TrEMBL record:
Signal peptide: none annotated. Residues 3-233 form the ABC transporter domain. GO terms for molecular function: ATP binding. The keyword Nucleotide-binding applies. SUPFAM superfamilies: P-loop containing nucleoside triphosphate hydrolases (SSF52540). This is ABC transporter ATP-binding protein. PROSITE patterns: ABC_TRANSPORTER_1, ABC_TRANSPORTER_2. InterPro entries: AAA+_ATPase (IPR003593), ABC_transporter-like_ATP-bd (IPR003439), ABC_transporter-like_CS (IPR017871), ABC_transpr_LolD-like (IPR015854), MacB-like_ATP-bd (IPR017911), P-loop_NTPase (IPR027417). Keywords: ATP-binding, Nucleotide-binding, Transport. Pfam families: ABC_tran.
Length: 233
């Protein structure tokens, strides 16, 4: 098990977003997280990635408890072990494509002369080699999302989290982006946890789970959902 949530609860004010949610993901697995809007998918992903701290419950990464680490150590772990693709890419529009992709490396104190060749190599793998010098504000949605994926993968993460990475794309471009992301992840042996609304996108995953009302169930709505804290596998 590389990533695991055990009985994770998290509220925003008086709104419970997660209610003792459990999910366990094996190394190298590609898991699609589906479910209605507002059911807690993004909150779950952010908790698993150490971006949010749960109110209660445990989050584990590779045998280590993530939710009890200090902020500094959790930030460091996120930078070295995780990649995160946000729904709208969240690229820095004033920077070039190559700058955006090199950014996580530069923040991790990789030297510029090492960071940029690595960024360029990823751009090439994603079919974006020609676009390195362009500002990200000038890109199409599909191009921007591929840049966001390159940026999430450039540091060689063990786990790639993606929150509706194809949500702003038409379905053909979305399938293409998902196909690329999953293909690269499989080549690298990266674990992928991807939130999506699109069943055709989810079809690229090894397994689907559904989030409903802040709990994780399997696609048949199996009993695990009704047993607080139980882990869906
Ligand atoms: P999903 O990603 O499945 O659409 P979310 O995890 O974003 O669901 O949200 C789950 C619930 O938590 C919703 O009721 C949502 O309104 C609430 N919520 C999520 N993030 C916040 C936030 N930052 N502030 C207040 N409420 C939030
Ligand atoms: Mg969401």
């Amino acid at each position: 098990m590389i990533v695991e949530a055990r009985g994770v609860s998290r509220s925003f004010g008086s709104t419970p977003a997660l209610r003792e949610a459990g999910l366990a993901v094996d190394a190298g697995e590609i898991v699609a997280v589906m479910g209605p809007s507002g059911s807690g998918k993004s909150t779950l992903l952010h908790c698993l990635a150490g971006i949010f701290t749960p109110d209660s419950g445990e989050v584990w990464f590779d045998g280590r408890r993530l939710d009890t680490l200090s902020d500094a150590r959790r930030t460091e772990l996120r930078r070295t072990a995780f990649g995160f693709v946000f729904q709208f890419g969240q690229l820095v529009p004033e920077l070039t494509v190559a700058d955006n992709v090199a950014l996580p490396l530069l923040l991790g104190r990789v030297r510029r002369r090492d960071a940029y060749p690595r960024a360029d190599a990823w751009l090439e793998r994603l079919g974006l080699a020609e676009l390195g010098k362009r500002r990200t504000g000038e890109l199409s949605g599909g191009q921007a999302q591929r840049v966001a994926i390159a940026r999430a993968l450039v540091g060689g993460p063990r786990v790639l989290f993606a929150d509706e990475p194809t949500g702003s794309l038409d379905s053909l471009t979305g399938e293409h982006v998902m196909d690329l992301m999953v293909g690269l992840a499989r080549e690298e042996g990266t674990t992928v946890i991807v939130v999506t609304h699109d069943a055709r996108v989810a079809a690229f995953a090894d397994r689907e789970v559904i989030v409903r009302d802040g709990r994780v169930t399997d696609p048949l709505g199996a009993a695990a959902a009704r047993v607080p804290g139980e882990v869906v596998r």
